[in-house]
What we know:
Strand order of the largest sheet of chain A: 1-2
Transmembrane segments (chain A): 27-48, 60-81, 108-128, 135-158, 164-181, 188-211, 217-237, 282-301, 332-351, 363-395, 415-432
Protein name (chain A): Inner-membrane translocator
CATH class of the largest domain in chain A: Mainly Alpha
Strand content of chain B: 5-15%
Order of helices and strands of chain A: HEEHHHHHHHHEHHHHHEHHHHH
Low-confidence stretches of chain A: 1-15, 455-464
Number of strands of chain B: 4
Oligomer: heterodimer
Low-confidence stretches of chain B: none
Radius of gyration of chain B: 20 Å
Number of helices of chain B: 11
Mean pLDDT of chain B: 86
Order of helices and strands of chain B: HHHHEEEHHHHEHHH
Largest interface: A-B, 65 and 66 residues
Pfam family, one (chain A): BPD_transp_2
GO molecular function (chain A): branched-chain amino acid transmembrane transporter activity
Distance between the termini of chain A: 31 Å
Number of helices of chain A: 19
Domain High-affinity branched-chain amino acid transport system permease LivHM N-terminal (chain A): 23-119
Strand order of the largest sheet of chain B: 1-4
Number of domains of chain B: 1
Amino acid sequence: MAVSGTKTPVAGPQGDPNSLQASIKDAAMAAFLAGVLGFFFIGIRTDIAPGGLDLKMRWGAWIISILIVFAGRLLLNLFVYKTRRPVTRNLSIGLSGSESRLAQAGKVLKWGLFAFALILPFFFTTFFPGRDRQFIDLAILIMTYIMLGWGLNIVVGLAGLLDLGYVAFYAVGAYSFALLAQYLDFGFWLALPLAGLLAATWGVILGFPVLRLRGDYLAIVTLAFGEIIRVVLLNWYEFTKGPDGISGIPKPTFFGLELKRGEGGFADFFGIAYDPIQRFIFLYYIIFILALITNFVTMRLRRLPIGRAWEALREDEIACRSLGINTRNTKLTAFAIGAMFGGFAGSFFATRQGFISPESFTFLESAIILAIVVLGGLGSQIGVVIAAVVMIGGIEMLRNLGFLQQVFGSGFDPVQYRMLIFGLAMVLIMVWKPRGLISTREPSAVLKEKKRIGADMVAQGEGH
Amino acid sequence: MEYFVQQLINGLTLGSIYGLIAIGYTMVYGIIGMINFAHGDVFMIGAFIALAMFLILTTVLGFTFLPVVLLIVLIVSMLFTSAWGWTVERLAYRPLRGSFRLAPLITAIGMSIVLQNFVQITQGARVKPLPPQIQGGITLMEGSTENGTILVQLSYMQIIIILTTVVLMAGFTLLISRTPLGRAQRACEQDRKMASLLGINVDRTISLTFVMGAALAAVAGLMFVLLYGVIDFYIGFLAGVKAFTAAVLGGIGSLPGAMLGGLLIGLIEVFWSGYFSVEYKDVAAFSILAIVLIFLPSGLLGQPEVEKV
Lengths: 464, 309
């Protein structure tokens, strides 16, 4: 309740909209609403008790939540909504004035991040020798989400097709590899392209009938397909082992060398001491290269006619059709290519975990990936990186913050709040900056000279 | 035969619940052309409020006369859920009213995640059971099979659900067709800009649409609690998708269509579980959604949508 977008001040001829009184009144209303909304959820808790449900009142928490909303809304009113000089105005002026500088900084940041990602495992083994395994594992996780985000970015960010079932292709990739390994003894490298291909094929199969649909219908149907695939994986016990999942998925090899201890292993072959961390470093570089390929392919495709057609399609489908672009094929390629990268990431996920089950491929996963793409800015590659690092890494870091437990009591588990934060961030970002955190764009096609498209122009529907 | 009739009754009951939720989808779609993805979770919120209110009345205040208790629960949960519906619209959709097409859909998904996790955190992830409150029913038929006798029962609970749905539907149809509010809604549906030029407060009309949708979802939530006796924070997702399917099947934007679609989806689901397989009943509903959207995008009672340039 504390946050709300463009509040139009109720300006009457005699009433001063900026007065403290109005702010307090408005904040009181917000607090009242918060009290109403929170009463049955924060104020009351039902718990299973012997002999039925037990009801517990939590007046303290309820009153605190009301006070927080009151204070938050009051501060927002005083400094943003109901004042003649909102503090955010300076911020936005500062931002738009330095657009070109920001772009420069973005370029530096991009290469900086790339260089850091390149040396990341060695950075952690050198500087955090005690916790390197944990950090590299986290880096692998983040990198997987970056790759998924980039893959989904092709579909959502470039072609403008809202795909809520992206996790289906992730699942197809993971299960393709797991099943190929189990039934046909395929290794990771042989299965990887096949998994991508299968995922792309599924993308075409699922996409072909539904891509005629308009944006929001498409979203729901993709969601339905994602769920169908999950339910089938769950119930086709003879083939997929259902909820038991598949275990014993082979690890990737380095040109035929296994990363294991002893004779014939990677360490033995190169004559270095064996260390379990080597496997993590190796996995990290696999996903890093896969992610780079995703990024590179996307960037190149944007320069090709097909990529331009995607972006044109996102802006105006009817105009595209009247210009003779085959909209269905264009959408289908975006869908298939996005699905393919999802499939790659899926088979990497399978090999990293060594075990997969349908539990890993719920709608929540699709929502996380979508949140990353949305928060980063639809269509922005660097935005996806930042969003993935902040969201996935930030949440993992929360786990380690001991002082939060001291503040909120020992039962406090920040990870519980992960999805709540994701959801809130999705709403706030959409309301505040609809094109994501990184909302300036490098235009894909230029007439004479490159002109930056600022966030304010984007907001009016100009450019992209 | 007896089995068939019993399934028919069960299907109609389930379908009534879906229909009530579907109306919320259809009205919002009709008026602002967006899928209110969070509507399923508003239904879930309604179910939780109903459960909590029921417990307050029976265990804390000690009321025992069930019809009065249920009536109070119904009214309270409609009011409080409406507040949630209004807030969702105010926070997540109204600020985006001139934004690009996908924006409100994304905030809707965000809102859905927020509501689910909010309830999970504040009420816990475990299921909440409520013992059956209304027992008994009327035996309609009696037949015998090789496994013994089979009874066709129309329970009082089912009667209440179907009756409430019929009454609400009748009231709603009157509201839309006869009252100034209904007129304003239909005007906004046709042309929002023109409606506002003619002095209709469009924002208020849209807000009221959300409030009405949420109120109906709250009724569905109460019925769900009473019928199944078990709720958790995740019920809104599946029920939401199925109700949306119902709205699409009946023709999105059409009120009788939503009810018809709801009944059909309920019947299909029950018969599918009864005669084919329980595991794949959700697949059946999802497949219908895809098939309808592909082959019959305007639904059974809807009007084909013409996109103007």
